Amino acid sequence: MAVAASGPFAENVLLCDIKIGEGVAAAKILKNILEKCCALYNAGGGVLEMRIVDFEDLEPPHNELNRFWSTLEQKLKALIEPLSYVDVFERTFDRNSGKVYLFIKNVPNHFCTLRFNLFLAGDSGIYEASNIEAINVMTKPLNLKKKRHSDVDAPLSSLPKVDKEFAYGESVSFHESRRIEFKHYKSEQILSENNRTQCDNLRKIISSFANTNGGVIYLGITDEGIAFGHNLERDSTEAIEERVHFLIDKMYWSVTPKREVHWDLKFFPVVGKENHSVIVIYVAGMQTSGGVFAKCPVSVELRPSEDGSEGQVHLLDFDEWKQRMVGRTDVQTVQTDSKGLYDCMYVLITSNDHYVVLAYKVGPRLKM
């Protein structure tokens, strides 16, 4: 059990410094808090002790804390979705020490993820899947009543038909939709490893199409539907094909992606501009294959160190994360009698030697 002077007695305790004056809610501070909350929750719960470094400058400190917390609370709600904030978090503020203690309760059969990196296609664009949506995508193959004969639901042949010739600077005859995306990159070499923004953006689009009904990506057409193409004079078709293949292989697929089955790539000339082509990437729909992730999902867990010192925040790899997310989907029996319930208790010792006891009825323990 970790013990902090004038602080909480709990199995898992993490510390961090925060600055909240003048409505400060810097992204770096919020990210640090969210990572530690995620690590504590996934380790079974615990306490995050936050020292307000600008505490002496705050007048009154409680008002500044509430302003800061209004931003943080929304992010904490998103972190533990679909649970409610009050199911998981309890905040205590020690005015004497200027420390905030966030008590984190673990709810059985729920796992926190900072970023799913699994995307879906909507009518207004692509978006990152929620906790429920991610689980639904990953467990669809398990829930199919009939045996699958293919990991493709919307084959490449079913995708919207594309124009095979484009006029430079003119509007195309179709528009963006749930299955069509336009992108126009102005760099001489597109999708290089050094251009993370382009690569990340394309991975998200591919993920969103693969996890829904498939789609077609046009590189060289602006958001307004104007065709310019990409200049191939300094960027060969062979090099672009190699980069796209590399980008796709770096994604996390539930199947082994094969060209002409799960995806394809073609070049179509732009009339009126020599050496310019629109690059078209086709993505098959695989919404019942188990999920296609743009990157490895981001989730952390507090784990004990080998030498018995303070625990370390561990970044989960894909297989660890997936097992924690859906590894218990085959559980059939839940023990709900009083013997199956267990309590979680934290004791907070404030700087003036007062103490607060928080005891929570966490819920039924699963019978594995």
Automatic annotation (TrEMBL):
One matching Pfam family: SLFN_AlbA_2
Protein name: Platelet maturation
Source organism of this protein record: Desmophyllum pertusum
Residues covered by the Schlafen AlbA-2 domain: 176-283
InterPro entries according to UniProt: Schlafen, Schlafen_AlbA_2_dom, Schlafen_AlbA_2_dom_sf
